[in-house]
Design a protein that fits this description.
Length: 142
């Protein structure tokens, strides 16, 4: 019984470390904040999360998350995500969701620009992000 409880606690800790976690601005390295302000001087009322070891800054819009960007702990830009309407996604995305997730609707969507300049799309369903390429072809579950 102790092994089951310990396993559940460890699994919960691992899952918690994988998911994004809200953090205080004071815990974000100065080099990351400096990189944000250099690349996005218009960023205001920024909230921070830690996701997959990177720092994610969120700002804008009513929810405060119309724009999000990620930087590594050393301040290297990873990606930018701009919130878009689910109807603005490539039509292949909606088709994929209808075929593979019957009855489920896309809750939120985003246009992702990666550090190399490539574009992807995110479609959030059931608290998870489906990732698609620029043409709307499914890539992975994130």
């Amino acid at each position: 019984m102790k092994k089951i409880v310990l396993s559940a606690v460890l699994l919960s800790a691992i899952i918690g470390s994988i998911k994004a976690q809200d953090i205080k601005s004071s815990t974000v390295p100065a080099v990351v904040k400096k990189a944000l302000m250099k690349k996005y001087p218009e960023a205001a009322k920024v909230t921070w999360e830690k996701e997959k070891g990177n720092y994610e800054a969120n700002w804008g819009g009513k929810s405060g998350e119309d724009m999000s960007v990620q930087f590594t702990p050393s301040g290297v830009f990873v990606e930018q995500v701009v919130a878009i309407s689910p109807s603005a996604l490539p039509s292949k995305v909606s088709q994929y969701v209808k075929e593979h997730y019957k009855g489920v609707h896309i809750k939120e969507a985003g246009k992702v620009t990666n550090a190399d300049g490539s574009t992807n799309y995110e479609a959030e369903i059931k608290g998870k992000d489906l990732i698609f390429d620029e043409q709307g072809n499914y890539l992975k579950l994130d």
